[in-house]
């Protein structure tokens, strides 16, 4: 349907206005100006912030600079999460643009992974895709693809080429019609209440009886805390790509259309804002 | 890609979550992406521009602060823009609501419009039917018009035929008149022969011209009736003389003031001396001057012609121009060589006899002037169809008095301080010039066509349209009237002129049948009739003051000079 | 094949068995985390870290201390890369292995350090296999970088692991703790486990998936899995049945992991005895 294509495009081209501010403690030769950037939701921080690094390298003592890392309100931002997920999880209901603080020193070894080069991001991305396909198709589809196809996926993401990416990705979204969906839905539920980074389980899109599972079914099974209690107020927002889909949305459809390029359906559960 | 083949939950539910997601994505993009896109792009460009000037940086802190300030301003602008965006969105909402309202109103108006269209169609249908009816009516009208035209042509033809018939009749009558004239002539000659044996006594006091005249008069008297009998002849001759005597001694005071003038011994005309076509068109007026040597005629051809009366013929002497329309009445000034004419062109003109150009033109009337007479003291009196009588001063050539009269004045005469006018309302009015008021009103038999006064101002002759001549005795209070009629005498027009003979014994008038009728005043009978010389109705006659000549003019340009031998 | 699928329940069971064995042996394994938990063990290890080696993913390492080895490594790496891209088993690899075996010289200029290792065994629901997470830090508390970890890996394994970079040691976020850990990618686990399990099934021998798996991958990262585990599990099997049972010959299954195999036998025909 044309709607679905629009959804894919909107998901791919989603952007978050961000303001990068240099950490005040960094020693600068002159005052550092903030850098504004529209970050793609589906990409990764270290993949799209080369300009930021270049900008701030102009003001700091480059010999001093170590690996750049980002932090929002004290929380170090994990580059291996998609940017959209980070935003939805930490700054969903705040004033735009999203203010991220840039650090060049004191890399938090305990919290963040290092990202020395783009190939690390590529490795992480591809491993996500493989893991997702392992859940969806028992890795058959991804193993059938050639190395150049893998490369095309990565290049599509790196260069923001929707058509190039989806030319390959559609293969990963196919399933035998008799099954009615994937084997298991690749998803991760993020939340800020506990230290556990995410929740990932095996969950079928269609019950053995043929009943189609919805987002609500998934939450009930895997993370019932997110759902409002009977007759109670809504305490949590279930956010995917910055929007709250209705709980009756079929999970299979969500996985096909609202997944990130790494084929995972990243779901953020955040408390409802108080004001 | 394989689109979800899930059909669980029914179509409506499926589209609900799908639409929800689509809408939510659009909303998110609007909030997060669209607002900031341009701003960030400009900011980055600006940043790049500033980064291209690194050399300046260390030296100018002020520029840096300026840049920072700019940055702050940009942030402010962002905020303002966001605010503006909100405002504009609000405006959009308002406009949308207005638009909806307009749509609703339009919806309401449409049925009314439809109704108007329908009524218009109905009216158009009616227009068509009315047009059809009108077409039918028009065709009827055209048919009727055609019929009317046919009838009119027929009428014209009939009128033509009628005219022709009339012409024939007139012609026949003229022939008859001519016949009668010849017969009268023969009779006259016969009587002449008979009279040569009769001797008549003459009175000595009578002027020499009278010596021959008794004969004439007796002859004339003989013409009184078609059958002349002898005893009556003698008695009438005697009567004649008696009367003449009376007349020759006029004792009225008024008369003494006037030069009674020329000798009064009128002789009955018998023979036409001269017949000529005097004018180019019909002749309306004729007058002898006081010496009987000049004749003036005037008519439709706008000229007044002067003729010398010599040796029994009329010789054209002069033509007086100046009138722009036909001449109705002519009078010679008894005191000098002047001639006055009244004209259709609403004026009266005065010429000197030797000057064809009029000396004085008296304008002021609003319709044709029917009569113009010399009054007292270089005054002229004019009567007009505009129901006024005006008095003019000749020296100043202006109107000194206007007298309103109740009716069309057809003719008038002046007697000293009186003006007598004849009117179409069958009345003769006498006016006092000094007081300018009507002294007397005298009835007439019909429309008064002309007036003539006897030289002794004692008798007034009026010619009426009902073929009657009326002689009124002006002396005394009783104003006796005597009527004169005759067989065959018909007043030809509204301006037929009748005259009294200079001696007051006879009346002469022209008839419509082309004969001159002469009555004897004393007997009251027709004295003689002079036919055959005129083919059309006679418009005017004039008796020369010498009594010798009578001139009659008719509408077919003919003037005839009559004499008694 | 459901044979190779290790669902969570079975994982728990295997872990419990392992724990029991560990307790008996005093190996130091513990269970953390409750229902959704993991096996944990810490160990001290003396490792030679080639701190001067500039060793990265892309190409060969400029190992100045062993130029011949490095050259060989480079050459073999390229060839191996080609092989890997072809994605087929090759006997050549065995030959190289042989060469390598002969030409091993682990002469490094690095110093020998005492490192604290922490090993976690988690269940991956995506691959339905166990996954090994570990981290190492010096006595001072400084965590090891990826390069250092790499350099601590036995060269035998290093080659094999290098061939397909995606299936090697990577730095990942611990799924339950959220902290950076090194991880051995589990995508090939099924491949090398299948023959093991198949053989076990054929011989109607019970097998502890986790233990077997650990015996393969553990040594790669310096995790010692004592033989006693298996002896306890399977007391004195007849020697004829298992040909290369106790020979620490490198595994030459499709995985090319080159790991010395303990315990379970292999029915891979390409094994060299």
Characterization of the model:
- The complex is a heterotrimer of chains A (275), B (565) and C (273).
- With 275 residues, chain A is α+β, with helices and mostly antiparallel strands.
- Chain A folds into three domains: 15-103, Ubiquitin-like (UB roll) (Roll), CATH 3.10.20.620; 122-174, Autophagy protein Apg5, helix rich domain (Serum Albumin, Chain A, Domain 1), CATH 1.10.246.190; 175-275, Ubiquitin-like (UB roll) (Roll), CATH 3.10.20.90.
- Chain A is built from ten helices and nine strands.
- In chain A, the strands form two sheets. Chain A has a five-stranded mixed sheet. Chain A has a four-stranded mixed sheet with strand order 7-6-9-8, with helices on one face.
- In chain A, helix 7 (147-158) packs across helix 8 (162-172).
- Chain B has a domain at 173-563: YVTN repeat-like/Quinoprotein amine dehydrogenase (Methylamine Dehydrogenase, Chain H, 7 Propeller).
- In chain B, helix 4 (208-222) packs across helix 5 (230-248).
- Chain B is elongated and about 170 Å long.
- Chain B starts with 9 loop residues before the first helix and ends with a strand.
- The relative contact order of chain B is 0.09.
- Chain C has 273 residues and is of the alpha+beta class.
- Chain C has helices spanning 8-25, 67-86, 91-102, 146-152, 155-163, 189-202, 209-217, 228-233; strands spanning 30-32, 38-49, 111-124, 129-138, 169-173, 180-184.
- In chain C, strands 1-2-3-4-6-5 form a six-stranded antiparallel sheet.
- Chains in contact: A-B, A-C.
- The A-B interface holds A 1, 3-4, 6-7, 10-11, 13-17, 30-31, 33-38, 55, 58, 96-97, 166, 169-170, 173-175, 177, 180-181, 211-212, 241-246, 248-250, 252-253, 256, 258 and B 1-6, 8-9, 13, 16-22, 24-29, 31-33, 35-37, 39-40, 43-44, 47, 51, 54, 57-58, 64, 67-68, 71.
- Chain C: InterPro entries: Atg3/Atg10.
- Chain C: Keywords: Autophagy, Transferase, Ubl conjugation pathway.
- Chain C: This is Ubiquitin-like-conjugating enzyme ATG10.
- Chain C: It comes from Pagothenia borchgrevinki (Bald rockcod).
């Amino acid at each position: 349907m044309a709607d679905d294509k629009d959804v894919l495009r909107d998901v791919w081209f989603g952007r978050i206005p961000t303001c990068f501010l240099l950490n005040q403690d960094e020693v600068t030769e002159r005052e550092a100006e903030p850098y504004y950037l529209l970050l793609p939701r589906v990409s990764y921080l270290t993949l799209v912030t080369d300009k930021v690094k270049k900008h701030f390298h102009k003001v700091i003592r480059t010999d001093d600079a170590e690996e750049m890392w980002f932090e929002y309100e004290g929380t170090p931002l994990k580059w291996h999460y998609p940017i959209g997920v980070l935003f939805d999880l930490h700054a969903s209901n705040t004033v735009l643009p999203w203010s991220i603080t840039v650090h060049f020193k004191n890399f938090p070894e305990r919290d963040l992974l290092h990202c020395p080069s783009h190939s690390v991001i590529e490795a992480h991305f591809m491993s996500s895709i493989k893991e997702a396909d392992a859940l969806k198709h028992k890795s058959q589809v991804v193993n059938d693809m050639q190395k150049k196809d893998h490369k095309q996926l990565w290049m599509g993401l790196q260069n923001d080429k929707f058509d190039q990416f989806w030319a390959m990705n559609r293969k990963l979204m196919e399933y035998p019609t008799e099954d009615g969906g994937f084997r298991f839905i690749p998803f991760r539920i993020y939340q800020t209440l506990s230290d556990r980074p995410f929740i990932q389980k095996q969950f079928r899109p269609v019950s053995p009886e043929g009943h189609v599972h919805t987002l609500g079914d998934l939450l009930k099974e895997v993370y019932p805390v997110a759902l409002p209690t009977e007759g109670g107020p809504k305490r949590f927002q279930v956010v995917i790509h910055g929007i709250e889909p209705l709980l009756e949305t079929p999970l299979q459809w969500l996985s096909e259309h609202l997944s990130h390029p790494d084929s995972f359906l990243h779901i953020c559960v955040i408390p409802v804002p108080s004001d | 890609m394989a689109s979800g083949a899930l059909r669980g939950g029914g179509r409506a539910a499926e589209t609900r979550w799908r639409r929800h997601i689509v809408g939510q994505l659009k909303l998110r993009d609007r909030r997060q992406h669209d607002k900031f896109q341009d701003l960030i792009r400009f900011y980055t460009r600006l940043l790049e521009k500033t980064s291209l000037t690194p050399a300046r940086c260390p030296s100018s802190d002020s520029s840096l602060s300026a840049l920072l300030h700019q940055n702050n301003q940009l942030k402010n602008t962002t905020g303002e823009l966001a605010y503006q965006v909100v405002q504009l969105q609000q405006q959009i909402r308002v406009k949308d609501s207005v638009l909806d309202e307009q749509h609703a109103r339009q919806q309401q108006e449409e049925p009314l419009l439809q109704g108007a269209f329908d009524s218009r169609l109905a009216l158009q249908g009616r227009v068509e039917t009315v047009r059809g009816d009108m077409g039918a009516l028009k065709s009827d009208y055209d048919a009727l018009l055609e019929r009317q035209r046919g009838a009119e042509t027929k009428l014209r033809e009939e009128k033509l035929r009628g005219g022709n018939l009339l012409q024939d009749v007139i012609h026949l009558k003229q022939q008859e008149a001519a016949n009668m004239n010849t017969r009268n002539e023969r009779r006259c000659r016969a009587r002449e022969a008979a009279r040569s044996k009769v001797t008549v006594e003459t009175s000595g006091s009578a002027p020499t011209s009278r010596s021959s005249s008794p004969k004439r008069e007796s002859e004339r008297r003989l013409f009184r009736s078609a059958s002349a009998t002898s005893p009556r002849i003698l008695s009438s001759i005697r009567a004649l003389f008696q009367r003449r005597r009376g007349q020759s001694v006029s004792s009225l005071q008024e008369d003494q003031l006037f030069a009674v003038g020329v000798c009064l011994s009128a002789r009955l005309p018998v023979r036409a001396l001269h017949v000529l076509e005097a004018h180019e068109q019909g002749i309306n007026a004729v007058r002898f001057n006081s010496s009987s040597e000049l004749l003036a005629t005037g008519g439709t051809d706008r000229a007044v012609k002067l003729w010398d009366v010599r040796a029994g013929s009329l010789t054209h002497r002069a033509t007086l121009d100046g009138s722009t329309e036909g001449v109705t009445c002519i009078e010679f000034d008894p005191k000098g060589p002047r001639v006055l004419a009244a004209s259709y062109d609403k004026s009266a003109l005065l010429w000197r006899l030797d000057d064809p150009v009029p000396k004085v033109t008296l304008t002021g009337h609003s319709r044709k002037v029917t009569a113009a007479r010399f009054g007292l003291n270089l005054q002229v009196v004019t009567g007009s169809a505009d129901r006024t009588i005006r008095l003019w001063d000749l020296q100043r050539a202006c109107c000194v008095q206007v007298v309103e009269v109740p009716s069309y004045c057809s003719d008038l005469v002046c007697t000293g301080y009186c003006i007598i006018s004849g009117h179409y309302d069958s009345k003769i009015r006498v006016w006092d010039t000094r007081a300018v008021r009507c002294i007397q009103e005298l009835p007439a038999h019909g429309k008064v066509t002309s007036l003539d006064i006897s030289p002794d101002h004692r008798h007034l002759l009026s010619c009426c349209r009902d073929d009657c001549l009326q002689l009124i005795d002006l002396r005394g209070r009783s104003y006796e009237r005597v009527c004169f009629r005759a067989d065959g005498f018909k007043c030809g027009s509204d301006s037929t002129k009748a005259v009294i003979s200079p001696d007051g014994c006879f009346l002469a008038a022209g008839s419509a049948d082309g004969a001159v009728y002469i009555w004897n005043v004393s007997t009251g009978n027709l004295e003689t009739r002079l036919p055959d010389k005129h083919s059309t109705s006679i418009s005017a006659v004039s008796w020369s003051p010498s009594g010798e000549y009578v001139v009659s003019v008719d509408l077919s340009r003919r003037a005839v000079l009559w004499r008694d031998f | 094949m459901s044979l190779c699928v290790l669902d969570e329940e079975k994982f728990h069971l295997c872990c419990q068995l392992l724990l029991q064995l560990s307790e008996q042996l005093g190996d130091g394994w513990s269970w953390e985390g409750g229902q959704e938990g993991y096996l944990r063990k810490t160990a001290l290890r003396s490792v030679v870290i080639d701190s001067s080696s500039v060793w990265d993913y892309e190409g060969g390492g400029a190992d100045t201390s062993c130029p011949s080895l490095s050259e060989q490594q480079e050459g073999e790496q390229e060839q191996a890369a080609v092989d890997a891209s072809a994605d087929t088993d090759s006997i050549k690899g065995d030959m190289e292995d042989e060469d390598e075996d002969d030409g091993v010289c682990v002469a490094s200029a690095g110093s020998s350090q005492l490192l604290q290792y922490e090993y976690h065994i988690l269940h991956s629901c995506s691959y339905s296999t166990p996954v090994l997470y570990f981290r190492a830090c010096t006595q001072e508390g400084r965590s090891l970088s990826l390069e250092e970890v790499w350099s601590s890996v036995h060269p035998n394994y290093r080659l094999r692991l290098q061939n397909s970079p995606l299936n090697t040691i990577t730095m990942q976020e611990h799924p339950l703790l959220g902290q950076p850990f090194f991880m051995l990618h589990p995508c090939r686990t099924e491949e090398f486990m299948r023959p093991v399990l198949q053989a076990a099934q054929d011989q109607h021998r019970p097998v502890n998936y986790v233990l077997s798996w650990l015996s393969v991958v553990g040594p790669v990262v310096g995790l010692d899995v004592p033989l006693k585990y298996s002896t306890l599990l399977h007391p004195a099997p007849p020697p004829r049945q298992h040909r290369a049972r106790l020979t620490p010959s490198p595994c030459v299954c499709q995985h090319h992991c080159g790991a010395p195999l303990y315990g379970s036998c292999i029915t891979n025909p390409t094994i060299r005895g």
